[in-house]
Amino acid sequence: MTQKPVMHSAHWGAFHVQNSDDQLLIEPFRGDPDPSPLLQNFRQALNHPARVAQPMIRRGWLENGPGPDERRGADEYVAVSWEEASQRVAQELQRVGESYGPEGIFGGSYGWSSAGRFHHAQSQVHRFLNTVMGGYVRSVNSYSSGAASVLLPHIIGDMNEIARRGVSWEEIARHSEVVLAFGGLALKNSQVASGGLSEHTERGFIERAAQRGTRFISVSPLKSDLPDEAQGEWLALRPGTDAAFMLGLLAVLIAESLTDEAFLARYCVGWPQMVAYLRGEEDGIVRDAQWAAAICGVSSDIISQFARQLHGKRVLITVAHALQRAEHGEQPVWLGLVLAAALGQPGLPGGGYTYALGALGHYGKHHNLVSFPALPQGKNGIDRFIPVARIADMLLHPGTRFHYNGRQLTYPHVRLAYWAGGNPFHHHQDLARLRQAFCQLDTLIVHESAWTATARHADIVLPATMTLEREDIGGAPTDRHLVAMQPVAAPYAEARDDYTIFRDLARRLGRESAFSEGRDARDWLQHLYGQLQEKLAAHAIQTPDFSQFWQQGVLELPQVKDGGRMMRAFRDDPDAAPLPTPDGKIEIFSAVIASFGYHDCPGHPVWREPQQKPSASYPFWLIANQPASRLHSQLDFGDYSQSTKRSGREVCTLNRADAVAQAIAEGDIIELFNDRGHVLASARLTDTIMPGVVQLPTGAWYDPVDPTAARPLCRHGNPNVLTMDIATSSLTQGCSGQITVVQVRKFAGEITPVQAFTPPQ
Ligand code: PGD
C-alpha cells in the first residue's frame, strides 16, 4: 500500500518520503539546490535483513554472567523477550552501580547517531546515566577534530568559532583570490552536517568563486579532494608531510622578505621563536625549501614559487580535519594559521585562516538567530573522563596515568559500557586491539537498529528504531530549516526507540520521573519546540504553534550573517576585541603549551617525524578517509553504498604505476596488510593518486573471517583493521586514524563472500 509522502531529515539532507510496500520513494527537499545521493541509502533500509529484530543476549554472558570474556565478537546470540532483556539490563546496572559507583560505567557512547534532536541517542544515554545512575565516565572531544579542538583555543580561539564562523562561503565567492586548501574541499565531506543539512550550497559557491577568478589549490595526495567546479590546481604531497611543506613556505617568505612584519608584530606573539626555529638556532637544523622538499616530495623550486605566488594576494588558508587525524596532527593546523598570519591575511574579507572549511556542511555557513534547544542531559555526579580516542587504552590499562592538555590523569577501571548511536568497530583504530579491550569488560550493552560489528561484540543488544519509524525534529545551528521528522513506517519487528527503552529501565530502577519528567516523546517534542518559540519571541519573532509546524513539515528560521566576525573585529582593534587566547593575540608561540613540556607538541609548531613511515615491509601509505557513498558506517547496506562496491566489497584506489609493479589489474581482489591485520578490497587503478599511496575509505562494516585472530582478515574492506591506535600527541590525545602504512598484493587465498550484513547466529 502506498501512503502519503511525509517530511523527514537526515544528517545528509531533508527529504519527502513515501512508503510504498516498504520500498521508500525518496524525493529531496525542494529547497535543496544540490541534494546528496546518500538519501537513496534509505530506500530499502526499513526491512533489511541486517536489522536487529528483537532483544538478544550473547550466549556466554547469559550462561556465565558478567565478566571479562574472550568470546566477544565470536559468540552466538539468544533471542529473549523485552521483559527479560530489560530486567537483566536493570539488574546489571544496579550491580555495577552498587559495587563500583558511576566510575564503573562508561557512557561516552561516541557516535553520530541520527539527525533528530530529541531521539539523539548519545544525549539519551547521557541523560539516562546522569538521572538514573548518578553519572558515568564520559569522553571528551571527537574523532573528527580531536587534535584541533584542543589546540585551537590555545592559539586563536574556540574551534567552532573558527570553523563555523571563520569565513562565509559568500565572502569567498566575492573576495578570495587564492583558496589554499590543505586536504582539499571534497564535496563528499560537506554533503553531511550533524543534525541536518537542508541546503547543499558548497558546489554552487565554489563554482561562483572559480568563475570570478578565485584560484583554488588543493594540497593532497588525492586529486579527488577538489571538485571539478573549482577548476583548481592539485599539488600532491607525501601524506602527513604538510607541516614540513608549510615550514618550507615560511622559510621562503622570510628569506625573500615577503612576510607582513607589521601584522606579525601587532597581532601575534611568538614570531621570533618561529623564525629562530626555521633558522635552526635551537638545534642547528636549518629548515628551508630544500629541507622541506626532501620530506614532502615537492621540489624546492616549486615550494619557492608557491610561496612567492601567495604574497600580495587575498589568500584564505584552510586545513582539513583529515590532516589533524594523524600523528602530530596539531602541527599543520597550527602552521596553517602561522602561514596566514605571515601573509598578513587574518581578518580581511575572504582572507586569513579558517579551520576545516568544507569538512562538514556546517562550516562557512550563517548561524540561526537562536538554536533549537537540546535535550537536557542532567548533571553528571562524577568528573572522570578520557579523550574519546583513548577508549582501548582505558579498558586495557585501568589505573595507568596519561597526559592530556597539561593535566596528568588516570584511566578509570570501567566494568560496564553502554553504547547507543555509535559504532566503535567503525570509528576506532586497530580493531583487533579494540576487541581485546572490549573483552575486558564485565558487560557491554548496545542499542542498535542493525547488526553492526559493535552490536556483534555486545553482551546485550537492544533493537532500536530508525528515525523513519518515529517522530522527531531535525535541526542544526547552521541550517535555516527546522524539519518535522514524520514517521513513515511502524517500528521494525520488536524495535523500540532509545527513549522508550531508557524510560522502562528508569522505571525498573525507581527513577522514572527523574528521567522522563512525566513526558512521552511527543510531549518532549512539544516542550522543546515551545522553548524555541520562547527564544524567538524574545526577538519579537512569532512562530506557528506546534500542530501547525507539524502539519507544514518545515519551519524557516531567521539567521545572522556572522562569518568572519571575530577576526574582523580583532583586526579592527586588537585591544578592544582581543582573541580568547592568553595574550589576546594569535599565538605563534604558546607559553602555556610550552609549559606542559611535551616533546611531541612543544610551544611553537614544529616538524616531527611520524612513527609510521613506509618501509621495506610496508612500502605504501594508506589513506583511510571518509567515504563518498554513506555517512561513516551508517546504512552501509543501503542501495547507494552498495552500488559503489564491487561484488559487495569496498574499492581501494591505487596509482596505475604501482599497480603494474605489483602485478595488480583493475578489479583484482587485493590484500592490504601490516602488523595489525589484513583487509581485502577490489583494486581501482588511477593516475589521480600519488604514487606510493593507496586509498581505502572507512565505513565498510568490519567482517573478519576469524574475529579472534591476532591479525584478523576483513574480507569486506574496513581500513581500521590496519590503522594504528596511537594518539596524535600528549597535548590532545586525538585520533590518528587517517594514515598508516601497508603492503599491497593480489590476494592469493580463498575468497569467501562478505558476511557483514548477515546477522550472527
Ligand atoms: P557512524 O557510522 O555514524 O560512526 O564514527 P561513528 O561511530 O559516529 O555510527 C553511528 C551508529 O549509530 C550507526 O551504527 C547507526 O546505526 C547508529 N544509530 C543511528 N541512529 C540511531 C538511533 O537513533 N539509536 C541508536 N541506538 N543507534 C542509532 C564516526 C567517526 O569515525 C568520525 S566522526 C570520524 S571523523 C572518524 N573518521 C575516521 C577516518 O577518517 N579514518 C579512520 N581510519 N577512522 C575514522 N573514524 C572516525
From TrEMBL:
Residues 51-507 form the Molybdopterin oxidoreductase domain. It holds the Pfam family Molydop_binding. InterPro entries: Asp_de-COase-like_dom_sf, CT_DMSOR/BSOR/TMAOR, Molybdopterin_N, MoPterin_dinucl-bd_dom, Mopterin_OxRdtase, Prok_Mopterin_Oxidored. Its cofactor is Mo-bis(molybdopterin guanine dinucleotide). One of its GO terms (cellular component) is outer membrane-bounded periplasmic space. Belongs to the prokaryotic molybdopterin-containing oxidoreductase family. The keyword Metal-binding applies. It comes from the Bacteria. It comes from Pantoea deleyi. Keywords: Metal-binding, Molybdenum, Oxidoreductase, Transferase. GO terms for molecular function: electron transfer activity; molybdenum ion binding; molybdopterin cofactor binding; oxidoreductase activity; transferase activity. Residues 8-45 form the Molybdopterin oxidoreductase N-terminal domain. One of its GO terms (biological process) is anaerobic respiration. This is Asp-tRNA(Asn)/Glu-tRNA(Gln) amidotransferase GatCAB subunit C. Residues 620-736 form the Molybdopterin dinucleotide-binding domain. Gene3D superfamilies: 2.40.40.20, 3.40.50.740, Dimethylsulfoxide Reductase, domain 2 (3.40.228.10), Dimethylsulfoxide Reductase, domain 3 (3.90.55.10).
